[in-house]
Amino acid sequence: MRRMINYAPRPGVRLILAALPFVLMIAAYMLASNARLAVEPADKLMPSFASFWATILRMATTIDVATKQYLLWWDTWLSLWRLFVGLGISALLGLVLGIVVGFIPYLRSTFEPFFAAFSLIPPLAVLPILFILFGLGEASKIVLIVFGIAPFIIRDVMLRVAAIPTEQIVKAQTLGASTWQMITGVVLPQVMPRLIDSVRLSLGAAWLFVIAAEAITAEGGLGYRIFLVRRYLAMDVILPYVAWITLLAFLMDYALRRIGAAAYPWDKIKAA
Amino acid sequence: MTTIVFENVWKEYDDRVVLERVNLALDDHEFLVIIGPSGVGKTTLLRMLLSQELPTRGRILIDGEPIAAEPTADRGVVFQRYSVFPHKTVLGNVMMGPQWAGAPVLGRFFGARRRALEERAMALLTRVGLAEHAEKYPAQLSGGMQQRLALAQALIMKPKVLLLDEPFGALDPGTRKSMHELVGELWEENRMTIVMVTHDLPEAFLLGTRVIAVDKPRKDPQAPERFGATIVSDFEAKCRSVRESRVFEAEREKARLALIGGHSVPVDASPVPALMKD
């Protein structure tokens, strides 16, 4: 009998094991749902998969009377637009400020404590300020996302810049590099893989802020829809929407991971 | 011609004296090796020559001029580790210096200029034995190969002085031996000055034409920080005549290669001329 940690599953078994929790969860839901529906056919808390499918089909293929839109796609488009603009601005800010402040000692001394303090402000606590300043439209939602994740990305990029060995920077100088050339030729390429990871880690927070902002005020969006239909206990809309958001987040994470691996192959070699 | 002079150089951190009264005059084409116990300030001495750190007192002159207050292209360096850029291929690493010098904004050559530089870099890589690894990333190379790459990367800038900070410290004995040969040959071929820090005595006397030992001559048991280290011994490791004859042999070998090259194959088939300094 070997120790437990020395038993590893074969690849095929690994796949089955990975699928197992998902299958179990769905099975448990179906059993519970069936049991409830058997007692009360009009039960709203745990609808059957058939009613999920019917609802999604209706929202994806029929035009809504009130908004004149295909609701599922309209909501998805609005939320993703907010998410991408917010994430894009945050990543850009994080990259530029993180590198410049992380690399130049005078700027670092000036702004590092400020960023550290700034990143501790709870973004949702200042949401009312954003609504007052930027109105109830798209601007305040985008600013909320940027407010929420840009400080994290800036600090992460700064840490990565600080982790570049001094030897490399000195070597670059003995090869005649200027500050600009060191930023573009040594620091930026080595920070990029970390920026992608940083954005991946921020995805969850970014979704949180999108949904929070939409819950409070919006004309549409995935978060808005969930909070709107909550009044009617419409679990047949909420649960598929949650699954859909999860799927979108997973796809974005996966795409970022693949982009990082394809664009920066040297970053993954270290393990070998 | 490159001469280095240390004029009464001191290095202090607050109350702690690390180095004191360092005076040294180094002729052209010397191979200076600095030895001494660990933590005594050998590397500090090298860093001051590199301008990575500035002396508290005194000054350092190269060719009679005080050195710049920051690292510049006239002093190349190879550290024990982290001397190469992990995000560039082997060839890309060697090509970085000239591209920075020639393209201030983009740091990148295109077209004919790029091809010419690639040729030069490949000649240099062939010389240090990395030609077949040109497309790999540093992380895919062994420690010895990474140090060869770091040497090639520094040499393409044709520095007046090459500084080596325990460059073979992390290598296994076999690799270390072949690196000794390579560095010795490169030193002859490029006619530059090398300053190396090591704690390996046989290595010091094998490579060095001059070996200096750094240690604390005065010790105060109550205040060990009170006095710094300085040069306590200065050996001429290889006497002039031996060096002159080695230089002569190297010249003859070079002439022979050029002769062979001139008759049978194009001159650039031999990688050696690519390394010759003006």
From TrEMBL, chain A:
The keyword Glycoprotein does not apply. Gene3D superfamilies: MetI-like. It is a multi-pass membrane protein. The chain crosses the membrane at residues 80-107, 114-136, 142-163, 199-218, 238-256. Coiled coil: none annotated. Pfam families: BPD_transp_1. It is found in: Cell membrane. Belongs to the binding-protein-dependent transport system permease family. This is ABC transporter permease. It comes from Ancylobacter koreensis. The lineage of its organism: Bacteria, Pseudomonadati, Pseudomonadota, Alphaproteobacteria, Hyphomicrobiales.
TrEMBL record, chain B:
InterPro entries: AAA+_ATPase, ABC_SmlMolc_Importer, ABC_transporter-like_ATP-bd, ABC_transporter-like_CS, P-loop_NTPase. It holds the Pfam family ABC_tran. Residues 4-241 form the ABC transporter domain. PROSITE patterns: ABC_TRANSPORTER_1 (PS00211), ABC_TRANSPORTER_2 (PS50893). Keywords: ATP-binding, Nucleotide-binding, Transport. One of its GO terms (molecular function) is ATP binding. Signal peptide: none annotated. CDD domains: ABC_NrtD_SsuB_transporters. Belongs to the ABC transporter superfamily. PANTHER family: SPERMIDINE/PUTRESCINE IMPORT ATP-BINDING PROTEIN POTA, SPERMIDINE_PUTRESCINE IMPORT ATP-BINDING PROTEIN POTA. This is ABC transporter ATP-binding protein.
